[in-house]
Amino acid sequence: MKTAKYNQQLISLDRYNREDYQKLYDDGKKGMLTCSVCGGPVRLYLGIKDKPHFYHHLSAKENCSEQIESSPSVQPSEEAEYIERNGFRIPKARSITAEAEREEKFIFPREVKIPSPFNPFPPAKPGVKLNYLKQLKDAGIHFDGNQEKAVVFIDGPLLILAGAGSGKTRVLTARTAFMIEEKKVDPGSIMLVTFTAKAAAEMKKRIALYPGMSPAKVNQLIAGTFHSIFYRILCFHDRENWSSDKLMKKEWQREQILKEAGRKLQLDEKEFAYDLALQQIGLWKNTMIMPHEVKPESPWEEKVAFLYKDYEAAKERQKLFDFDDMLLGCYKLFKEKPEILDNYQNRFHYFLIDEFQDINKVQYELMKMLSSKHGNVCAVGDDDQSIYSFRGSDPAYLFNFKTDFKNTKLIILNQNYRSPHEIVETANTLISANLTRHEKEMRAQFSGERPPVIFHPYDEEEEATMILTDIKERVEQGERPGDFAILFRTNAASRAVFERLANSSLPFRLDQDIESFYERFMIKGMLSFLRLSMNPDESEAIKNILPSLFLKQSIFRDLQANSILNDCSMLEALTHVKTGFAFQEQKLKRLIPIVRSLSSLSPVAAIDIVEKDLGYQDFIKKRGNEGNQLEKGSDDIRDLKVAARNFKTVGEFIEHADHMTAMNAEIKRSSRNLTDAITLSTIHRAKGLEYGNVYIIGTVDGSIPHDYALDAYRNGDLQPLEEERRLLYVAVTRAEKNLFISVPQKRRGRKANPSRFLSNIKRKMPNQDLGI
Ligand SMILES: Nc1ncnc2c1ncn2[C@@H]1O[C@H](COP(=O)(O)OP(=O)(O)OP(=O)(O)O)[C@@H](O)[C@H]1O
Predict the structure, then answer these.
(1) Top enzyme class of this protein (predicted)?
(2) What is the pLDDT of residues 464-509, one digit of tens each?
(3) Nearest by Cα to 104 from 189, 13, 173
(4) Which atom in ligand 1 lies closest to the alpha carbon of residue 171?
(5) CATH number of 74-142+419-507+674-772
(6) Domain-by-domain residue ranges, the chain?
(7) Is the pLDDT of residue 228 over 80?
(8) pLDDT for 87 beyond 50
(9) How far is the CA of 392 from the centre of ligand 1 (A)?
């Protein structure tokens, strides 16, 4: 049904502001919506399966004559694209009005129409008769002919070029077990390199379950990331210089050293992209270009080259090291002490390297060095899943492998065993738009129940609600929470889904490095003003606003003293601060009544005042990493305003922020050992994993592709954009059954354009109506 009673008034969804649906949804849950006929409680449905509608909640439904409007399940809504004119059905022109309508109307979710029917393409037949293969088969672990070849070929270099879902992990794990069980290879002579620690742990766990394997045997394997393996070697030989307390773990520690160097060049923090400079330095290091070897190709690179020299010198002075130094350090150790290298060359006979498309020069050189005696290197990779080129990864190593490793056997795996035909075809179509790739097409093994669905929430809030509704419906129908993953481009983009899940009873899991949105530097500062309006003595809040008032932290003690001496609140004590600058002291005096007044405003209005009247906008410009390309303080504040819209009072909003921060810590702690939980993850972290149902959020320009890639494209560099497309490809290929791509109409309070990557589906698959 489309009407309900709200605040004593009859409202109709057709005439209701689209922007306010989320509020209606929330108020419905609070019992503030009633049926216009029976007066029973109703709620607003915001999901993927049906159009938004009111529905009876609890018992009133049976007795009420007002019917729930039944909407069709997801369907291509032709009416949106065609109009009748003079008896003809003609396509609607895309006009500015149409664009405006896109924002205001509910756009029904659309299924991607797959033009090519599923045509089974039988994989090569297995045929090798070996005892252990039979045991694996008996244990339900099957291989096709090509996979089987890859499992049993263990002597000599082997390159496996394999697409998404083609069984790389299965092959690598089975191959390891095969070597140990069938070929009696000593597990301690096998090095298994993965891209993440999580992947290494997963693989070990899987191997331990194979016939004849045991955790004891598996633990003898040297399995881990390049960093973990080579760092262990470094520590073993030179513990003092490489102790972990000297490692600069955090990005800000590195950025701090860089900014100090930048001051010598008088670089403006609000204009200079320090994050990209750090990335560039990492790229030089990983491609083994030392500071004196850099040949800058632009004035920007010239500056970064200067910073690089200074950064390395400062690190050496302070006896610190960063992650990239671990690999370079090990390389140096092997070069300078050949006897140590010799030792490891004798120890390791077999190398298995996963995600080879993401290998960089220093990693490649290390592998070449270590394997030069035995030459048994098995490299597995997919150039379409190369998503770390910003760190110096280069799929060229995958293709040049045959040149460096003589007599390489090449095996191609192009059968996708994970996803149905509909998802595989969508993924093939998306990635085919990339120019720098080796042309290939994955073939699915089965057809699914439904094609991928593209849906169009109003904004981030509604996106989160629609996903939660959908998951709830499916869990009620018997699916397990562990079968769901919500994937996003950046951690900050996960705020709304986190909040919706945190307020539900569904179990979910969060990566350890996803900090609470409300703990982000700029957000914390902003919220502190709001907190002080409620409690002018909150000392943490006072500390947090000092940077934005351009006051040193040492002032805090003066404030405490002033507050006691003058018998006033900590906030009022600001009026007694002597900074030596009359204009600043004046500003502090003016600030007090404004801060006090915030508590009576709506949170959005309060944030506006802090931004404009209390100089927070200036602070963001100066200290909000506005020069940065990946994360900007101003974006955080725009995200904060979207969150704040749901609350009437500052008090409620602060309470919510505190609750969410506590929940973030609690979920991270308690979900560690949860086996059946929804996954919230960045796309980068989801690589190599698979889930029954995948929701990709924020598939709009600026999010995926990320703004920085769009900027690079405008400046003539296509590579970052292609990498973003690969990211979307990785996300799409995680789905085993259902894929939902969310294209919100608004992002960060502004109109959003559907991701340009989706247009290839429209171009290549005719008669598509994706609602974009
Ligand atoms: N021969 C096979 N028969 C049936 N299922 C298979 C076969 N090979 C692999 N699978 C299944 O297909 C899915 C994908 O396999 P796997 O995770 O090993 O692929 P992958 O190549 O590592 O994928 P990606 O690179 O996309 O992460 C898994 O669920 C795996 O169990």
Answers:
(1) isomerase
(2) 999 999 999 999 999 999 999 999 999 889 999 999 999 999 999 9
(3) 13
(4) 18
(5) 3.40.50.300
(6) 3-63, 74-142+419-507+674-772, 145-238+346-417, 248-320, 518-650
(7) yes
(8) no
(9) 27
